[in-house]
Amino acid sequence: MSSAEHVLALDLGSSSVRALVLDAGAGLRVRALSRRQVRIELRPDGAATLDPHTYVAAVHHCLDELRDAGSLDGVTRVAVASQWHSLLVVDGRGDPVTPVFTWAGNQELCAPGITTDEAERLRLATGCELATLYWTLRVPWLRASGAVPRGAVLVSIAGHVLEALVGRRTESASIASGTGLLDLAELAWHPAALDVAGIATGELPELAPSGEALPGGPTLARRYPQLARVPWHVAVGDGAAATVGSGAVPGRDLTITVGTSAAARLLERRDSAGRLQRGCWRYLVDDETVVTGQAWSGGGNLFAWAQEVLRLPADPDELEALLAAVPERAIPIAVPYLYGPRPGNPAELRSGRWTGLSAQVTAAGLLAGLLDGLGFELRLGIANLEEQAGRPASRVLLGGGAVTASRWWQRRLGAQLGSPHMCLVTEPEVTAVGAAAQAAGLAWTPPLESLAAVPELAGRWDRRFEEYLGAREEAIG
């Protein structure tokens, strides 16, 4: 693509929708950004949902704002990054009949009646264990509640948004790999996984190869004529986009991304990725590349929860100062599972807990303990992925909006994780940048700064890590 071309990147997150215009000739520099908050509703049954009508309206709000500012002029392609694991039931016309069920759900679902060997074969074929996060368990739960009427279709929020904008119902292989239903070797719906989920192929959208571009439709021509004749690339999973946007080299680097949630990931070539070890999942970046990793439901949402419930200041600078002033002896050990487990986490960890509370502990100390707990979980993830790779990581690339917004947390993680080759990815929009780089076929090298572990603190952190592992074992029971 020429250096004068611009990429529009849609970032379909679970806490916000973002639309960014990036300059491909200037290192994917962000030229314009529009953002709209969305709110997850926590239901009594443990499900965490988004309203699909409000969500599509948020996308239109962002696009309208960029259009009215003239920022869509010159856009030559559209890239999409989307939250993985979302599930929405639509009717034959594409109208929603359920809310969007997100990754954050913590509902109790029944395990299917298959053997351990059958479950293991499915895990290795699809990259996904039989867990609450995936459609293999969620769809039977929804069907039992009567929420899947005759003629309905199961889609992701990415598929629904693209249908609303370009008029074609399709699901990218990258997004489909986060459902637990995709055969990673064949790049097709896995028949045995569909049987477990009780899904007929007619209830699913057509599969599009990752990177396929869709033409615009009448909706675009009327409302966004600047985007009607440019290719719309089908969605890539947000974790895959963040890994690419972090500048990871396949097989060499590990990435740690902390946004609303948190994940540790290893980028690998699909044809040379090793056998998937227990505790890890594997999804597609594109048809040639996979990302293997572990994820945690707690991330930046721990900050948001603490600010609201513990009445901590919303001003970032004020909160940073409070965290920096907390004495080490007043930071309790915390197991940070406020939002339940993700695949690879022990299923018993369905709630958080603090140990070592005293009258010295403040609200800021409680938050510091939660963030420390997540750091120790990430330390476990690094060890597991280095075992998966069969070698130590060349670099550990730390990024994501929650981390780039907090110097206190950056320093804390740099000491906790203990990697001598840790770098901070200073680009706050790694997901959008990664999606744009994928769509445009560009190599991406983000700006990095050193964030090595603090040597004199290593012994103390090792002791706290051992204390954390003890508290974690007690929480598992």
UniProtKB/TrEMBL annotation:
Alphabetic keyword roster: Kinase, Transferase
Record bears the keyword Transferase: yes
Transmembrane portions of the chain: none
Residue ranges of domain Carbohydrate kinase FGGY C-terminal in the record: 255-440
Residue ranges constituting the Carbohydrate kinase FGGY N-terminal domain according to the UniProt record: 7-245
Pfam family, one: FGGY_N
Signal peptide: none
Keyword flag Oxidoreductase: no
InterPro entries: ATPase_NBD, Carb_kinase_FGGY, FGGY_C, FGGY_Carb_Kinase, FGGY_N
Gene3D superfamilies documented for this protein: 3.30.420.40
Family statement drawn from the similarity comment of this UniProt entry: Belongs to the FGGY kinase family.
Name of this chain's protein: Gluconokinase
Species annotation: Nocardioides bigeumensis
Taxonomy of the source species: Bacteria, Bacillati, Actinomycetota, Actinomycetes, Propionibacteriales
